[in-house]
Amino acid sequence: MRRFVVGRTKSLVNRYQRSRVLSSTPLLLDSPSSMAAPPSSSHPSPPVTLETINPKVLKCEYAVRGVIVTLAERLQHELQANPGSHPFDEILYCNIGNPQSLCQQPITFFREVLALCDHPAILDRSETQGLFSADAIERAWQILDQIPGRATGAYSHSQGIKGLRDTIAAGIEARDDFPADPNDIFLTDGASPAVHMMMQLLIRSEQDGILCPIPQYPLYSASIALHGGTLVPYYLDEATGWGLEISELKEQLEAAKSKGITVRALVVINPGNPTGQVLSEDNQREIVEFCKKEGLVLLADEVYQENVYVPDKKFHSFKKISRSMGYGGDDISLVSFQSVSKGYYGECGKRGGYMEVTGFSADIREQIYKVASVNLCSNISGQILASLVMNPPKVGDESYESYAAEKDGILSSLAKRAKTLEEAFNHLEGVTCNKAEGAMYLFPRIHLPQKAIEAAEATNTAPDAFYAHRLLHATGIVVVPGSGFGQVLGTWHFRCTILPQEDKIPAIVSRLMDFHKGFMDEFRD
Amino acid sequence: MRRFVVGRTKSLVNRYQRSRVLSSTPLLLDSPSSMAAPPSSSHPSPPVTLETINPKVLKCEYAVRGVIVTLAERLQHELQANPGSHPFDEILYCNIGNPQSLCQQPITFFREVLALCDHPAILDRSETQGLFSADAIERAWQILDQIPGRATGAYSHSQGIKGLRDTIAAGIEARDDFPADPNDIFLTDGASPAVHMMMQLLIRSEQDGILCPIPQYPLYSASIALHGGTLVPYYLDEATGWGLEISELKEQLEAAKSKGITVRALVVINPGNPTGQVLSEDNQREIVEFCKKEGLVLLADEVYQENVYVPDKKFHSFKKISRSMGYGGDDISLVSFQSVSKGYYGECGKRGGYMEVTGFSADIREQIYKVASVNLCSNISGQILASLVMNPPKVGDESYESYAAEKDGILSSLAKRAKTLEEAFNHLEGVTCNKAEGAMYLFPRIHLPQKAIEAAEATNTAPDAFYAHRLLHATGIVVVPGSGFGQVLGTWHFRCTILPQEDKIPAIVSRLMDFHKGFMDEFRD
Description:
Two copies of one chain form a homodimer. The first copy, chain A, is an alpha/beta fold. Chain A has four domains: 9-54, no CATH class; 63-103 and 408-523, Aspartate Aminotransferase, domain 1 (Alpha-Beta Complex); 108-154, Orthogonal Bundle (Helix Hairpins); 158-389, Aspartate Aminotransferase, domain 2 (3-Layer(aba) Sandwich). Helix content of chain A is 43%, strand content 11%. A seven-stranded mixed beta sheet of chain A has the order 2-8-7-6-5-3-4, sandwiched between helices. In chain A, α11 links the parallel β5 and β6 (297-301). The longest helix of chain A has 28 residues, at 400-427. Chain A is globular and about 70 Å long. The interface between A and B is large, with 113 and 113 residues.
């Protein structure tokens, strides 16, 4: 029997229920919002307490920046203040897909264009020719010409600058071989706000459900919680390389319906996060058919579209798949999320991305536009970068060779690192780890000894969190416990990025092996 | 008798109510979410319709990018495709505080630093010395040294880069002469996401109310609608230069309480948007006292803090005022919003800003941090820019003189433009216009002839929207009808920015006068 288990959920839900109970009892009278404190009262209750905030906020959690990261930051401060205070020299943040924090260098061409667009006054100067490549200068001019008044400091259209959307649509067409419409593109500050926007549109109450993979990227559980909906889990099958089975989708959909939940959308993350699987075309076609048949919006998280590491798998967008099945915009409602934070570029700090929204009526599109307009527009540098990643230098451009070398260097190194770490995990006693076919993570399963589980429970900690804390304290390596992503009850995992630089991998593997052996020895049954 | 009237609200609320009725009746069975469409059905109902989206989205509206802007964009396309098709050469967007869209130039020093941080590879190159000022190069190095690994492409701490928060806190201290803590700063993609974050925290249901000025900046009404709360209006007094009276706050608070509303926070916009008033210190002290006494969070929109145009008024932050009254963090919960989009810099497209959050307990701060962490971080260029506007060049720095000249040029020109436009409006028949003491807008009142009101009603349009549409069609000038901001029932206004460049003002004034005279002649009673 499978059950959705997320660490700390129970305690949070308890607090949540407590807060709900409080807010419907006379105890609420303690809240100063409904009680005018006398002016003489020197210490009235504060206007905002855990009991009086929005319970949806309380319920939301986000593991990849959770407790373990706070602990890691504390250890880092201790190391800085007192070198040698821990058995490691540095904290290795393998908790989050943040490549440049682990020394991945940005793509030079992209940064040249961004710098020139930030300070166009130098475009005409002779020194600029010596500092920047000719095609970066040309591209900057092209982009500036697409911006009304060349004003990179002005709010743009709320969907993003039209010329940049044209470029992105052309990039999608080149990728998919099917038409893309710039009016379907909404540029956003990374993929996260785009996901929130769709959840906000779809979720009316906790009777509305969103089908999400388990394990999932916790943005989805967090966003559904914040918007007051219900996460309807479907389990990926670890035994078949985290396969996505339609029978499981059907079963969970029916189970949700029987509980009175209206399921509105299906989230698919491809390549998978945290699982790293790349879906086959056949599987994608089944998924499209399922959404069409069941009247579900397909929310396709395709932010790792450039991150595929195995020769027998290839990324196909869900739009391409559905169009190749003969389904047009009238047949299926589909949102594809893309981000500048992932791929080979890894420009997380730029907060750029877009969603391509197809298969919605004009009046719904107007509502999405309205919500986008309340935040005016996404940041222009992120918009420019999104256009660059969808239209990088081409053969013959001055920057092409250096660009291609940078890109291939990063992607082939990521593939090597994924393989090395996967093999290392599989060599650990009681650990099994699927291949990272794509994305930026491995999600090994640890078969923990019963004594370790008991030791964890004695400290009121999920066993995988217990393991991750011990790992951090012993090695400085930060991984995220599987309970933050959801996992089959009684199984334990952690997510580890493949992002540390290659020259650091041997030391990481060795620290990991030593730690794991010591841990298993300590808790061996 | 005053009443809160917002244009189009009625029709939207009608649609909203219709959708609520629908969603609680058997008609919902038409929705495919609860009905598995047979595979043979070639045209099943779409998964998302106006009847099945989140009614809060439907209810939300945002006037500054509303219908009139869509119309203006259409006219602009027509002008481009067919020059001479309208009685004007260009559209003048006076609907939104977007200075660089109207040719305001960015501050050179800020853009130099941003460009260097975007492409640090050039910092060491000799050509760079010729292209960039020495202090911009030095500042870029300082900023890079504050970023772990100098990685401007990495996600930062979810509150923003610590070193930049240190700089901002120091800037606040220099401004206020009271301590500021970098741990109280949350860097955000402009002020709008910060406002949403606080609304999300505070609003549990429509029984939670937020006191907002009328007229207000429609971000507040939009955000409250999206989060499902109730806007509790308090009316600024046009007769006393849009004065904020405590008696009015009290009256509206009591009225809300008597309807079962728990009022959680008071929004104050200072300098005012759309009204342009700058609050006096005495008035601010009364407001602080009121919030303290009533247990309200004070949400202080201080994004126009640099935009004060009259010698007898000065901006004081609410934090400074409350600290000077002897109130510390334990006494009052206060959030101050700041943005890089306004001031003399007007860097709207960069989406930078921060909120300074004081007077909340550690566990509430943890919740705010958690919500911030779900979006990972705000964009790094915006973060850098927020640190720059709070710590611009100082006397003695190489850039100081040119920086000061740019800044003073913009601010003194804005003051002149405000005065010229204010006088022009006051010369129009039946128009009265308060002084823009600060911010970027004038909010003239138009006393419309009865025949114009009837003509508007005949086309199902609010009279001020009717006027604004006529103005746009005749002159290409885009203003926002007062009904988008809220106004006393039976009064009509529009908001017009003071942002067109000085050399354009005479032509604008002349077009405005001609149009207005024609309009009044046409509809004179």
